[in-house]
Sequence to fold (114 residues):
Amino acid sequence: MVLLLLGILLVVAALPVSHKKGVEEYENSEKTELEEKLEHLLSNVEGVGETEVILMMEEERDSQGFGSSKVPKVTGVLISAQGGDDSVTVQKIQEAVKALFQIEPHKIKVMKRK
Fold:
């Protein structure tokens, strides 16, 4: 009986444990939450209408933090908006996203939502 329990314990201990998977799931949930917040914010702006947002993210070292902590950085934004055919609305969206994420306007693409 003891040998059987010891064998089971060894098998369980030998199973691969992936800490990285948990970190990736956390990062993916954060990205989704950030996209949802931006969609909600933009959809409440006059002339924008319904929106869908995709954020391109990249990890970068946090120079203000301790150790080797990494923080996500937005490197590109794709937005589908009902008001995406109006140049004034597109400019408003680009300015808002530029201010929020401090990225260049050419990394923000706004398209007309059908």
